[in-house]
Amino acid sequence: MPQSMDLPRAHGAPALQARIRTTPEDFRVDELPGFEPSGSGEHLLLTVEKRGINTAFAARRLAEWAGVGEMAIGYAGLKDRHAVTRQRFSVHLPKKVAPDLSLLDRDDGDERLRVLGHDWHSRKLPRGALAGNRFVLVLREVQGDRAAIESRLRTIAGRGVPNYFGEQRFGRGGDNLGAALSMFAGRRVGRDQRGMLLSAARSALFNRVLAHRIAAGNWDARGADGALDGEVWMLDGSRSVFGPEPFNETLAQRLAAFDIHSTGPLWGRGELRSSQAVQALELAALADDESTRLRVGLEAAGLKQERRSLRLRPADLCWNWLADDVLELGFVLPPGTYATVVLAELGAIA
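RE: above sequence
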């Protein structure tokens, strides 16, 4: 199965065709902080706005400015180059003396970086230390019936979308998956690349299970008919899981309220936590030769079985027609999820 957004949709055929990122300003992302700065410590916490610059490039720029190694720079999440993004970075400065912040500002036309705020903090900013991301996206050259488009948006707001890993997880042209298979076959890779390829392999297997459940019509376990025997549940807004346990009215109410979600496997060593019908479905989805090689490789690498929610609900979803063929969308997503999967459920967007 290709690891692109050609994966099956949950809500039917595309409601629109449109273009995205005709300019970086059409894709705005604001990182939502996961904590307040302590106000003291050896780490300078910077809030930075970037245009045309990805997170890794910005981190190198900060290291050069501070005269420190790149390991002294922390950030919570990766942000795309083809966008206008705001995110935090931390810079370890043991002497608590920061170079001139104005020297960081950069504006080369297509590329821009500026510091919006700063404070001191007691620890390096770790990966994942964010509450989520707020997106404001502009779709241009929109083709489609406005009533049908808005109906699809209401469906997305009410039911959510499949929580696929986005195509950026798999590299340019999906090359990371082939590279992962080569690594499992014995090709040596660097530590950073190894982690990226393990993530791609795990993500591919999760997407295949989710696609299988969409085809079976039970991806979001709606109602008593949708919840299969052996479901493992995840609490909304956390990685805490429980079950399997028999489906009942209480679970149905929590599911409808988006308090819990059914889950799929992030592959690794150990037994699947799911059981009965869910476990049988997951194993059937991953029984082909390529999936088997990916599973064996992940187990040999020492990763352990984990779970991920099958369902993603964009919070605060809103929309506004800026012109007859220009649609602005706004929503908030939790960490580790992808705006591209929301767009894919809406339509064909290039």
